[in-house]
Design goal:
2 copies of one chain form a homodimer.
Chain A: E1 2-9, E2 22-29, E3 36-45, H1 48-54, E4 72-80, E5 90-94, E6 100-104, E7 109-110, H2 127-139, E8 147-150, H3 156-167, E9 172-177, H4 180-189, E10 194-197, H5 203-210, E11 215-220, H6 224-232, E12 234-242, H7 261-265, E13 269-272, H8 282-294, E14 302-306, H9 311-319, E15 326-330
Parallel strand pairs in A: 8-9, 8-11, 9-10, 11-12, 12-13, 14-15
Antiparallel strand pairs in A: 1-2, 3-4, 3-6, 3-15, 4-5, 5-7
């Protein structure tokens, strides 16, 4: 029997989620029954899609007041009732915001601690990295000569998208982000050729100047005006990967999108990306990205808090677009 | 020296073009100088894009009052000053609404009268057929198993799109058109499995019932509500070819399009099609379609008027969506 802390939703979410929308609670976990595992959580990933899910606008279920907040984690098995998993194994999967979790073994996937830094395995080497790989390799098929634009370029997906584009041979990689500080990260740490702060009054002119040959590939995490503007600057036959809609995460309605005429005139190829379609590839992509990290070809930055109780504070910051780097909650030590 | 009739724009177009917006005029054509041809026009194609061009909303130049109306034609050389073209050769190209045309030989392409019926060579075996082929073969890559939806299905592009989809092995082909009469053409003559009249109050329910397995390929000639509705019924990984925006041809503004969320959720692949990109393939596609016509695999219907002076009347009908079949003006006899 284990007592685990967990973060639950305190009240219905009607605006951008804040820390006070959540509260710490406890639950008692039984010992694992056959086929179950008891896992101590080491790292929790905080992700923007949870903000959508909390308002019933994501393909995952909507948490109601009193419910556990969903979240991907990485942890270590402390008790196993499944022959394929041993105490001490590291695993990842949906854990929710808690410090221990009793789960069916089939819901967990073993991770190799040596493949990439453990926290990166739920960050740039995890699903954000898989998203970036799927976008640049499978959908956009980036090649030398490509002029790649990435929105939310300071985020764990966007930052990795641009770096993978560069690794795949893109000729020019430009980011869009929401502050000077984020842009500094994008160019200095992630090595983009340029970064446009979309809060600047003349950002559209800056963008056109930064990509004088046009945009051959646009990875969109935002929608709205950023998508419109990128489309205006798209080269003929440009590829557009639609991967997120940050501009809508807190909107009450889904606003209309660009007039289809722009897709026709530009002969655009527009592709919707859902990372869940690529989960089979996760181990290979984690290995690939781990190697790039080890070789110094791919950089990542974390915005990390210590302790499960700090998750709501970091989540509020993430939802307000104020965090820099991948939002990670360090719930427990890597080894005990 | 030849006196040619021509149709010019009488006044600025501010609403749906009507016959009275045009007038018949004359021009005197010199004898061909070196490298020029004098061509008598046999058939003129009337096309919806001209309606857009007249209002400055097409990628081709906007005709101003007094200007010749643009249009693709097919004709026969009556005088040649180019060694590659002989009197009696049949040629096609941009001719404008007139009965004779003096053109640089390089602007004309010879056509083989035996490849397909001559009028079909500026109809289903011409650019509309090339558009349909590019859409179904090159962009959507239709295969057995595909569930194909086509808007403007009674038109020369849409009707051919559905028939080529069937030839390529599509499992189900459904059309959308704007009247019972058009729908009868689509199912009876073009052999679609079903046709939805979008003027029916319950057309959206009819569409969902007609495609119970979802839409794997949508060829869109219309935009607006038809595009929105097709996207709602799209299968995951559906392909959408954007080829026209009939819903906007007469609009004062370009309305917004579907929210990008639908493209993401459906993992859609959306492609813009401009037929000019495929012009090199025209002779091969004309031959292919001519053979399908000869073999009874591909049907076409013409809405034909006799005489250049009738072009404005037929064009008004086309712009009002009241014509059935490819709009063709028979300007002169096929042989003299």
């Amino acid at each position: 029997m284990t007592v685990s802390g967990k973060i639950i939703l305190r009240r219905e979410i009607t605006a951008s989620p804040v820390a006070a929308d959540f509260e710490l609670a406890e639950e008692v976990l039984a010992d694992p029954a056959a086929g179950e595992l008891l896992v101590r959580v080491i790292y929790l990933s905080l992700d923007p899609y949870v903000g959508s899910a909390l308002r019933g606008r994501h393909m995952t279920p909507q948490p109601l007041p009193g419910d556990l907040i969903p979240g991907k984690g990485i942890g270590q098995i402390v008790a196993s009732a499944d022959p394929d998993f041993a105490v001490g194994d590291y695993v990842t999967g949906e854990m929710g915001w808690r410090d221990h979790v009793l789960v069916p073994a089939g819901d967990m996937r073993k991770v190799d601690k040596e493949m990439a830094p453990l926290s990166a395995q739920i960050g740039v080497a995890g699903m954000p990295g898989l998203t970036a790989w799927a976008s640049m390799h499978h959908l956009a098929d980036v090649r030398p000569g490509d002029q790649v634009l990435v929105s939310s370029a300071a985020g764990p997906v966007g930052g990795t998208v641009g770096q993978i584009a560069r690794i795949l041979g893109a000729t020019r990689v430009v980011g869009i982000a929401g502050s000077e500080e984020k842009c500094a990260l994008v160019t200095n740490s992630y090595g983009f050729d340029a970064c446009i702060n979309y809060r600047d009054a003349d950002w559209k002119e800056q963008l056109a100047s930064a990509m004088p040959e046009g945009i051959s590939v646009y990875h969109d995490n935002v929608g709205g005006e950023l998508l419109d503007t990128a489309l205006q600057n798209l080269s003929d036959y440009g590829r557009v990967v639609l991967c997120g809609l940050a501009s809508q995460y807190q909107a009450d309605e889904r606003p209309a999108g660009p007039n289809p005429a722009i897709f026709i005139v530009k002969r655009a190829k527009v592709m919707g990306l859902v990372v869940y379609d690529f989960l089979e590839e996760q181990p290979n992509v984690t290995r690939k990205i781990g190697q790039w990290i080890a070789d110094g070809k791919l950089a990542y930055v974390e915005d990390r808090v210590e302790g499960l109780d700090q998750a709501p504070v970091l989540f509020e910051k993430l939802m307000a677009g104020q965090n820099i780097g991948k939002a990670i909650v360090a719930v427990g030590p890597e080894t005990i």
